[in-house]
């Protein structure tokens, strides 16, 4: 059996005040004299009284909880964002419930259903697919506050996210500007319909008059360091190997960097490497890694502010708004040598 639940009546019996007086005192009502309120609060503490949040939410129609759905808890960027969101919401009096879809659409739908059953006030979601969003649009149509943390401008749902297309373009444009003409890409987003980084890569090639070469595109079938290592192995084993590589995240890029070390290639002299997200390990890699910066704090601040704006909206939600953050490229030794551009 669990511990017995302490009720307002138990505090009333202990102090001799009415249940109504106890209730008002614990809610900080100014009608209750401070001396009386102190006696009641002390009795509540001694009895280990906890407010019934379920009952309170039935009255206020708020649970003061927000659901956060991640695609992969092992992704360093998502872990950092989750921590920042939890802290930002706590400062505003909200608790955060976490779920991970593991990049599985059905798991994502189940997580959303669980959050709905818990009656969260709103949700922040990293969707598995940036384009398979019908189940999330359905939430929006039901007037449920939701903000995506990855999306395209035509998502039809509120979103705050890094402009991945622009970020990838910047990284590849930098590689072109430092003299590279055969640039490979390690990116698994194609299978999920997450095309932004690949599109940014192609956009930079086209702008420079360079051909798109399918043999220079490798799907790592994952997002980890070891997946990046073996993707680099495939890329560099093909005829006409690239002189530069753009990886869709820093874990993949670090795996590619490890492959060069194991195979005696110099970075950036023999092959240049650029990643995406600018995780802590990127700066401290054996060869510090050029990377597109993921503005964790800015994404968090804007997304939480927008979600709470929706949560506190009376009546129908306003038209959805998508905010794309133009990212900075952090250039380090993995792609740049003095005098190379």
Automatic annotation (TrEMBL):
PROSITE patterns: HTH_LACI_2. InterPro entries: HTH_LacI, LacI/GalR-like_sensor, Lambda_DNA-bd_dom_sf, Peripla_BP_I. It comes from the Bacteria. GO terms for molecular function: DNA-binding transcription factor activity; transcription cis-regulatory region binding. PANTHER family: HTH-TYPE TRANSCRIPTIONAL REGULATOR GALS, LACI-RELATED TRANSCRIPTIONAL REPRESSOR. It comes from Devosia geojensis. This is Transcriptional regulator. Residues 6-60 form the HTH lacI-type domain. Keywords: DNA-binding, Transcription, Transcription regulation. Pfam families: LacI, Peripla_BP_3.
């Amino acid at each position: 059996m669990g511990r017995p639940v302490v009720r307002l009546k138990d505090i009333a019996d202990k102090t001799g005040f009415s249940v109504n007086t106890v209730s008002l005192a614990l809610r900080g009502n100014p009608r209750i004299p401070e001396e009386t309120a102190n006696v009641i609060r002390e009795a509540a503490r001694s009895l280990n009284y906890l407010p019934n949040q379920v009952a309170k939410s039935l009255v206020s129609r708020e649970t003061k909880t927000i659901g956060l759905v991640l695609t992969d808890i092992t992704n360093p960027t998502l872990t950092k964002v989750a921590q920042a969101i939890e802290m930002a919401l706590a400062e505003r009096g909200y608790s955060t419930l976490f779920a991970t879809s593991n990049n599985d659409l059905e798991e994502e739908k189940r997580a959303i259903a669980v959050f709905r059953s818990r009656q969260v006030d709103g949700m922040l979601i990293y969707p598995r697919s940036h384009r398979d969003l019908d189940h999330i649009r359905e939430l929006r149509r039901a007037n449920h506050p939701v903000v995506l943390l990855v999306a395209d401008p035509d998502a039809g749902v509120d979103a705050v996210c890094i402009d991945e297309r622009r970020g990838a373009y910047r990284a590849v444009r930098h590689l072109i500007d430092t003299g590279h003409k055969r640039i490979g890409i390690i990116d698994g987003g194609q299978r999920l319909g997450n095309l932004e980084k690949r599109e940014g890569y192609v956009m930079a090639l086209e702008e420079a008059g360079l051909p798109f070469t399918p043999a220079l595109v490798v799907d790592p079938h994952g997002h980890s360091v070891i997946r990046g290592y073996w993707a680099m192995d495939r890329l560099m084993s093909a005829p006409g190997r690239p002189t530069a590589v753009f990886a869709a995240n820093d874990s993949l890029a670090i795996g590619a960097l490890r492959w060069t070390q194991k195979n005696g290639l110099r970075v950036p002299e023999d092959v240049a490497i650029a990643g995406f997200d600018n995780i802590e390990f990127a700066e401290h890699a054996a060869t510090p890694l050029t990377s597109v910066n993921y503005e964790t704090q800015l994404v968090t601040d804007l997304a939480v502010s927008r979600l709470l704006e929706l949560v506190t909206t009376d009546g129908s939600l306003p038209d959805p708004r998508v905010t794309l953050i133009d990212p900075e490229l952090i250039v380090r030794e993995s792609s740049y040598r003095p005098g190379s551009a």
